[in-house]
Design a protein that fits this description.
Largest sheet: 5 strands, antiparallel
Strand content: 5-15%
Mean pLDDT: 82
Strand order of the largest sheet: 1-6-5-4-3
Shape: globular
Number of helices: 10
Low-confidence stretches: 263-280, 382-386
Distance between the termini: 60 Å
Helix content: 25-40%
Length: 386
C-alpha cells in the first residue's frame, strides 16, 4: 500500500470500528480502539554488527527511518524485538577447510534453566529440544516463558532459542517445512491400484487419484533425496556457527548496556560431568568440528534409514530376479514400516522427536551421559592429532 494512502486507510478503519452497532453475538464496542501489528521477520539480518551497541543503534535508526516511531503511541512494554547473537568459526589452519560449531545439549539444558521463574516453586517455562541427526548430545533448544513468569512479566523476556546454523542447509522457501514432511510419502509402500481403491472408498464424492499418483510420490521422494545429497556435498568447505535469539521488549532493548549481553555461559556446577574446561581454559558450550566430517555423519545417518525404506518401496513391484510383487496383505504390513521410516527421516533432518509420540513405546527416554575424566578439549585435541 502506498504511504500516501495509509492515513486515509487507517481513518476509514477507525470510522468503521466506531460505527459498528453490534448484533446478537458481538458487542457494539468489540472493534473499538484498534491498533496496528507490524511484523519485520528477518529485519535483524540487515543490521548485523560486531557489537551489541552498534547492532542496537543501527536497528533503532533503521526502524525510525521506516516508521513514524512515536514513543507515545507505541507501548514499549508490548513492542517485541528479536535480539540475535552468533558465534562464527574461522579456520586458522586452512581457510578453505570448513568448520562447524555444534551446541552441546547438556549445556543448553543449563541455559534453559536460567529462564525459570526466580520467585515461584514452578519453573513457568515451556521448552523444546531438537536433536541433530537423532543423536543425544548435540542439537538445539527453545524456551518460552509463561505470562506469569516474573522474568516475562517484569523483565520483558518472552521467548528464546539457541540452534546450530547448519540446520539452514535443509531449509525450504516455506518456513517451518522440513524434508520428508509431506505425509503422503508414507503411502510409498502401496501400489497404484491400492491407492486408487482407498481414494474411491474414502472420498465423499468417489474421486480417484491421478493415474500417476504413485509415480508423483516417487518423484517427490527422489527430489528430496537429491536436494539433501547435493546440499551436504556442496557445503563441506563452508563455515557454520551457532546462534542465540532472544525475544525481548523494546523497553529492555533500550535499557541494556554492552556488558549486559553475553554468550551462553556454563554454570560451574555442571562442570562435574567431565565436560568441563581443561588446563584452566574457558569451557565452550559447543564443539568445533570439520564441516566435511559433520556432513559425512549426517549423510550416513540419513542413508541408514533410506536403505530400509527403499527396500520396502521396491517390494511393491515385481523384481528383475523373478520376485513377485507384494500382495495386498504384505503391502499393508510393509506400509506401517514405511510410515515409521518416513517419520524417523523427518525427525533426523530437523523436527522435535517429542512431536512424534506414535514413534515411542511408552515414554521417550534418552541414554544417560557417562561420567568421564576426559574433557571436550581432550577429545578435540585427540581428533586434531589423528
Amino acid at each position: 500500500m502506498p504511504e500516501s494512502c495509509l492515513d486515509i486507510f487507517w481513518a476509514e478503519v477507525q470510522r468503521l470500528s466506531y460505527d459498528y452497532t453490534g448484533n446478537r453475538t458481538i458487542r457494539r464496542d468489540a472493534f473499538r480502539d484498534p491498533f496496528l501489528v507490524i511484523t519485520g521477520h528477518g529485519l535483524k539480518l540487515f543490521t548485523k554488527r560486531d557489537t551489541f551497541s552498534l547492532a542496537r543503534n543501527d536497528f533503532l535508526r533503521h526502524l525510525n527511518q521506516c516508521f513514524d516511531f512515536n514513543a507515545e503511541q507505541i507501548p514499549t512494554k508490548d513492542c517485541w524485538v528479536d535480539l540475535g547473537m552468533e558465534d562464527t568459526p574461522v579456520s586458522a589452519e586452512d581457510p578453505s577447510r570448513g568448520v562447524t560449531l555444534m551446541w552441546k545439549l547438556h549445556c543448553l539444558d543449563n541455559w534453559v534453566r536460567k529462564f525459570a521463574c526466580p520467585d515461584h516453586d514452578s519453573e513457568l517455562i515451556e521448552t523444546c529440544r531438537y536433536h541433530w541427526a537423532l543423536i543425544r548430545d548435540s542439537g538445539s533448544a527453545s524456551v518460552e516463558l509463561r505470562q506469569t513468569n516474573s522474568l516475562r512479566r517484569n523483565g520483558g523476556i518472552a521467548y528464546n532459542k539457541a540452534y546450530n546454523v547448519n540446520k539452514e542447509m535443509f531449509a525450504t522457501p516455506f518456513k517451518g517445512y522440513s524434508p520428508f514432511q509431506n505425509s503422503q510419502l508414507e503411502a510409498l509402500g502401496y501400489s497404484q491400484e491400492l491407492l486408487e481403491r482407498w481414494y474411491s472408498i474414502n472420498s465423499t464424492k468417489g474421486m480417484r487419484p491421478d493415474a500417476a499418483k504413485r509415480r508423483q510420490l516417487l518423484e517427490a521422494y527422489t527430489t528430496t533425496k537429491r536436494r539433501l545429497s547435493s546440499t551436504l556435498r556442496d557445503s563441506k568447505n563452508e563455515n557454520y556457527g551457532v546462534r542465540q535469539e532472544y525475544r525481548i521488549t523494546m523497553e529492555l532493548l533500550r535499557a541494556l548496556d554492552e556488558g549486559d549481553v553475553d554468550a551462553v555461559e556454563l554454570p560451574a556446577s555442571s562442570v562435574a560431568d567431565g565436560q568441563g574446561a581443561a588446563d584452566g581454559a574457558a569451557h565452550t558450550p559447543y564443539w568445533v568440528l570439520p564441516t566435511n566430517e559433520v556432513n559425512a555423519f549426517a549423510a550416513a545417518e540419513i542413508n541408514r534409514w533410506l536403505f530400509g525404506l527403499e527396500v520396502i518401496i521396491g517390494r511393491v513391484s515385481a523384481g528383475y530376479d523373478g520376485r513377485p510383487a507384494a500382495s495386498q496383505e504384505e503391502q499393508l504390513i510393509n506400509g506401517v514400516m514405511v510410515s515409521a521410516l518416513v517419520r524417523v527421516l523427518r525427525m533426523s533432518t530437523g523436527t522435535d522427536p517429542s512431536s512424534h509420540p506414535s514413534m515411542w513405546l511408552g515414554e521417550r527416554r534418552e541414554r544417560e551421559r557417562e561420567e568421564s575424566d576426559a574433557s571436550d578439549k581432550d577429545v578435540e585435541r585427540e581428533r586434531s592429532q589423528r
